Amino acid sequence: MNIKEVIPFKTSNFSTGKLLLVLMIAAISVGSVGCKSQKKLAKEAAAKEAEAKAIQVEKAKAELNRLLDPNSGLSLEEKERILNRVKSMNLNDPEVNALIRQVENKLAEERAALENAAGEAAENMEAGQRLNQYFEAIAGAGSLAGANRNINEALGMFSSPDALVLIIISQSGGQKDYDRPTTIKKYLEYIKDQKKNINAVDKIVYDNQGKIKELELIKK
Amino acid sequence: MTFVVASFLSITDMHLTKLLIYALIVTALPFTVNGQKGVGTYLGDESAFYASTKQVNQFFRRFNSEEDEEGNRIYNDSKKYHSPRLRRKYIEILFDNETSSLDKALKEIFIKDVTDATAPIFLEFHGGEWFAEVHTRFNFYGKESAAILFMKLQEEPVGSKWVIDKVYFEPFNELFKKKSDKDGKFLHPLSHELDFMNLNKIFEKKEDVELYTSREHKPDHLSLFLLELKKGNLSFVTIKNVKFHFFQIDNWYFELSEFNRKGYNTGWLISNLAKLDGEQKESYKKFIFFEND
Amino acid sequence: MSKYKFLFIAIFALSISGQLLAQDEVSPERKQAIDSLALEKVKDLGKYISIIGNKDTPFSEANRVINRAMELFAEGAQMGVSSLNREEVKYYGAREYFERLMALNYDRVTIKWFNIQYISDLERQPDGRYVGVITIYQRFQGESDDGLKYMDTTKKDITIYVERKQTQIGGRVIGFWDVLLGDIRVTETTS
Question: Where are the annotated coiled coils located (chain A) (predicted)?
């Protein structure tokens, strides 16, 4: 979304100009008109200012409500930019302030979820890489002892030696076809015996302790 | 690859079909050698294994042109599928050219007949009219004897299965005599007036009892066989060999046998071919089942 | 009479639908995936045989591998072996075959593969499972340190049972192909 298309910006520009015009007229009046009319003028200006503020508040509320809409189609960054702009208007309206707090909370949640997901993906990638490295090391181990040592190390990443291992043999029409489910211990021994590493890590599921409880592999 | 070429040159009396197989193999090799990965070291020359018709299933597929030169299944979206040109090539290599004395002219008529562009004939696994002849050994009262089992593929509500259709067991054949009225062994036509009291005499001489049965009666080897098995007098020893008889193609009969030998003309091959009409087929079946009198 | 006729038609219709089902259920793409899965298991078996037959393999390790190899097989699977000079088929249970192999005590066992395999169509059996046969050629070579060598080339026709199964794992249903090896016909060849 193009920022220039966002309405509050235009609105605030417009109202600032209007306000300036009102003040200029007021200043001219102050110089030429008497005390009584000065008061009257000031009162009119205040009324106009209040009207302008009311318009701004309405627009701000509309924008903030848009940010609360789950189907706004805006990215988190765009939402944060809009929120900051509304806040910088310092409207100091109780309703707007309440909405701002609501939006702030919502965006903070979204931000946290995003960072969490990114962190998890990075963690997954790291665990996946480590596992793939173990697979490679076990398949290529020069000795039985070496293979067994790698198996024991790799098993440490899992909640138990019986952790589930699923192997995708083909995917078509959104349907996954698996080989017979096995366990991580059996799978690691399979790599050791067959000296071949034909599957790569596709998905990792962790338990509460952060150990792998389920592993999905896919044919390379 | 070089080995294939070298041996190719060293063979002097190359038959046309062998040439054909070579052509097939040479085109097939570069793909398959690169296309495979697996355990252990691969061995060199396997052209003979390519040429061999390794399964009866492959015999069907080659006959119908339902697989490519490498033995990969092809489907009806491929130009090669059921291609008359390819079928002529394939069927040519499906005959035993070494031991069975098949009539060359007859072979050509057969190939022409089944690959006819307007009315081609294909073999169907589930099409019936073909069966297996299985040569086995059984132990019968302590003595090993040959038994021939005739097996047919039976369609079921789900899938299919092979079933024993008939058995031929030589000891049973020896047990039952051919009937002849000459030796005076019969129940005279007025026996009924005496309430068949003369039956006692015929059952005294067990070895002749079948002479008193009807002309139509034929000993059913399969029932006897199962009876002896159940009574514990008969037990399975081993399989010796298997062949198949095909009556599926109109006006033709052929026999399929397995040839395990050196060279390229190996595996499941046609070992016998005959042009037979419906009636001739029936009497030939009787001959195969040892049912001829 | 008409009742029987109806029954006959019903059975006939059922048998047709059974066959149609058999053709419909496994698409060529899926069949290819099953074929390569089955072939992988056949190759795995070859590797297990080398480990079991090798004298360097510790006894406990060999026993573990026998158990793993047995997991490839369906219940009651047998090897039917014949040689060039003995046409009759000799039968061995799968476990018996492995145990004999372990007892042979070659210093080295190598299973070499010819670069060819033939995979039959998958046919439906009356129990709904699919069955196929994979044909491979192998050269078995057993060597002892004193130079004694045994070698043969065999054609192996290996039964493959394929069954679509489902299992519940943590509340979700996982569909998988259970591929098991069945009887193996071993024929010595001349090459």
Answer: 38-67
Mean pLDDT of B9-38: 37
A93 located within any domain: no
Alpha carbon B159 to chain centroid distance?
A: 22
Report phi then psi at A152, rounded to 5. -65, -40
Q: Tell me whether residues A172 and C30 touch, CB distance under 8 A.
A: yes
Is residue B134 within 8 A of residue B151, CB to CB? The reply is: yes
Q: Which helix (H) or strand (E) holds C92?
A: strand C86-93
Chain pair A-C, CB pairs under 8 angstroms = 58
- How would residue A118 be classed by pLDDT, with cut points 50, 70 and 90? low
Work out the minimum CA distance from C118 to partner chain B, whole angstroms. 7
Residue A102 located in a structural domain: no
- One domain for residues B117 and B70: yes
pTM of the complete model: 0.72
The pLDDT value recorded for residue B282 is: 95
Residue B34 located in a structural domain: no
Q: In whole angstroms, what is the distance from residue B106 CA to residue B100 CA?
A: 13
Give CA–CA dist B60/B254, Å, rounded: 13
Q: What is the CATH number of the domain that holds C172?
A: 3.10.450.50
Report the DSSP pairing between strands A164-172 and C149-169: unpaired
Q: Which residue, A44, A69, A87, sits at the end of a domain? A: A87
Domain count across chain C: 1
Other CB atoms within 10 Å distance of the CB of residue A188: 24
Closest CA to C64 of C104, C38, C106, C102: C102
What is the spatial distance between Cα B188 and Cα C1, in angstroms, rounded to a whole number?
41
From chain A, pick out residues whose CB is under 8 angstroms from the CB of C51.
193
**Are the beta carbons of C191 and B38 separated by less than 8 Å?**
no
Identify whether C5 is part of a domain. Answer: no
What residues have CB less than 8 Å from C187, skipping those under 6 apart?
B260, C82, C154, C155, C156, C157
Other C-beta atoms lying within 10 Å of the C-beta of residue C187 = 20
Could you tell me which chains touch chain B, where touching means 3 or more CB pairs under 8 A? A, C
CATH of the domain at A151: 3.10.450
Nearest-CB residue to C115 (from B33, B39, B137): B33
Would you give the DSSP letter of residue B231?
T
Residue of B nearest to A196 (CA): B39
Query: pLDDT, tens digit, for every residue of A81-110?
Result: 888 888 888 888 888 888 888 888 888 888
Q: CA-CA distance, C24 to B268, in Å (whole number)?
A: 29
**Burial environment of residue C5 by CB neighbours within 10 A (0 to 12, 13 to 18, 19 or more):** exposed
B36 within 8 A of C105, measured Cβ to Cβ: no
Q: Compute the C-alpha angle B79/B82/B87, nearest 5°.
A: 110
* Residues pairing with A43 in the sheet: none
Chains touching A by CB (3 or more pairs below 8 Å): B, C
Q: What value of ipTM does the predicted structure carry?
A: 0.81
